[in-house]
Amino acid sequence: MQFKNKVIGENDITLHCVDQIYGVFDEKKKTLFGQLKKYPEKLVIHCKDLRVFHFCLRYTKEEEVKRIVSGIIHHTQAPKLLKRLFLFSYATAARNNPATDPKKHAIMFDTLQDWFRELERTKGNMKYKAVSVNEGYKVCERLPAYFVVPAPLLEEDIAFFQGRGIPIWCWSCHNGCALLKMSALPKEQDDGMLQIQKNFVDRIYKTVHRPPYETAKTEDLSSNFLSLQEIQMAYSKFKQLFLIDNSTEFWDTDIKWFSLLESSSWLDIIRRCLKKAVEIIECLEAQNMNVLLLEDHASDLCCLISSLVQVMMDPHCRTIFGFQSLVQKEWIMGGHCFLDRCNHLRQSDKEEAPVFLLFLDCVWQLVHQHPPAFEFTETYLTVLSDSLYIPIFSTFFFNSPHQKDTNVGRESQDSQSKPLNLLTVWDWSVQFEPKAQTLLTNPLYVEKPKLEKAQRKGTHFKHQRQLSLPLTQSKSSPKRGFFREETDHLIKNLLGKRISKLINSSEELQDGFREFYDGWHSRPPSYQGLLLPHLEGPEIKVWAQRYLRWIPEAQILGGGGVATMSKLLEMMEEVQRLQEKIEARHHSQEALQAEAASPPRTSGRLSSLFPFALLQRHPSKPVLPTSGWKALGDEDDLAKREDEFVDLGDV
């Protein structure tokens, strides 16, 4: 099966996908930027999806070299306007050919009905929650048009600091405990304003400290966890392991692979994220505590941790529809700054950090460790990560719903026509043919058993394993307000005065976490219940399909996990064929003969990184002739080989 993207060709590079541009001068590679005094004899482009392209310019006219190199540098590195980023012309052309309704692929969370549906689905106690309407984004431009808050909160309190300092609902556990997030209040130096903020926090505390929020744990992700700078620095080192120019470089770095991998700290960051999510789950599941995630804007690490918690605890989020809905709710509507974190506009390198890619890598660890628990495959996650850089989709190209609505509306007004028909990345038919889409779905997925109506009535779905979990001993401590025990810490955090000590970092909590974690792993997993990752050193692995797929030397022909999966699929198909053969006996001899005539499927030797396998490097004969092309003939011969050259115009 050929796995081809219908939008981006094999040798196409979108401007947003260009990471670094290098020039080769006298066999030395140098980074290219700005105006050049001397132009290179070879151009090397490193892409964000880790492809590496070589363009030889030695036999190109000097004027053409200057035009090509200067144009590529300008359009990929110069700061851009938002209107030049997204392919509005593509969306305009799509008006006459409307895309599939996006709600068929995910809950978009852009209507009240979507939020009420999610509240009902989680089986939480709805009387303690209220959907707040952010009409015209007057409350806060970073928040979506609708969001859920604890019911006692007043509208004037929500709008007092433009939505900051307000607990926002993310998800409810089966036992009624809620996962919430909160952004910090603006940092103020004026004593009068500080007092106003303190009074505001106290008012929120008095308003909210009633069931079911009387017991809550505050997790400050801004001061007690990762920073965006750590994530960006780790990934910058990590990706260099896979941006390999040639076989010689591959084997030179192979001898120090493990030391380079360890020094990048990327796998350790993944481990820390998964561990933090398990700690939150232990509070929700074992201690029956609400959890409040706190971050400066509640749009980076809050999105990451809350999403991981839901993937591990809610089997619905492990289906394709549920996972896509989760990304819409926590990331798109949650105000994650895709425009800044992916640095699409090239305006601020300081804001860049691959937080969403980190989330996908964490999910891949879970998919790799527990394949039957997920309806989607690692190929799905890989193409989703690639979609970050395809500008025909609006999904990952804005900082907030407000920014998207504002710019799309303005573009529509400028064109004086109907509203733009923006494509959603969740419609995979835009990128892949039906046969290719089958590689996104896991054939070994263990579906949730369907209950009879009599069983469903009056019952709430609970994790199948929860009754056997070694829960930590619950305390009969005095009633605490939502912020009662941690009010001082929380006020300091909300006011921007960070503390260095971990909140609730007692030995008792660590012991409870270890008991919870070990207890879960001591029993067989329930793929439609709670799902925890293995966190031990060798269990956190490199996402090979994404990072190694363009390196032929790193691939195993006929081996790896793909070979195992292929054999399993062959066995499943053989079992199905035999079942159909048995059923055919009850119908007619003709049907039996027709079934017997169909041979079983036999798979070829697939690459370990199928379906992205690059089984060999492109021949040394480059896109434009080089000195290494010894067989170079005259100009007539060169013209005959024109069809072998890659068109630089796609760059």
TrEMBL record:
<comment type="similarity">
    <text>Belongs to the protein-tyrosine phosphatase family. Non-receptor class myotubularin subfamily.</text>
</comment>
<dbReference type="InterPro" id="IPR030564">
    <property type="entry name" value="Myotubularin"/>
</dbReference>
<dbReference type="InterPro" id="IPR029021">
    <property type="entry name" value="Prot-tyrosine_phosphatase-like"/>
</dbReference>
<dbReference type="InterPro" id="IPR010569">
    <property type="entry name" value="Myotubularin-like_Pase_dom"/>
</dbReference>
<keyword id="KW-0963">Cytoplasm</keyword>
<dbReference type="InterPro" id="IPR030576">
    <property type="entry name" value="MTMR12_PTP"/>
</dbReference>
<dbReference type="Pfam" id="PF06602">
    <property type="entry name" value="Myotub-related"/>
</dbReference>
<dbReference type="InterPro" id="IPR022587">
    <property type="entry name" value="MTMR12-like_C"/>
</dbReference>
<feature type="region of interest" description="Disordered">
    <location>
        <begin position="584"/>
        <end position="603"/>
    </location>
</feature>
<protein>
    <submittedName>
        <fullName>Myotubularin-related protein 12 isoform X4</fullName>
    </submittedName>
</protein>
<dbReference type="Pfam" id="PF12578">
    <property type="entry name" value="3-PAP"/>
</dbReference>
<feature type="domain" description="Myotubularin phosphatase">
    <location>
        <begin position="109"/>
        <end position="547"/>
    </location>
</feature>
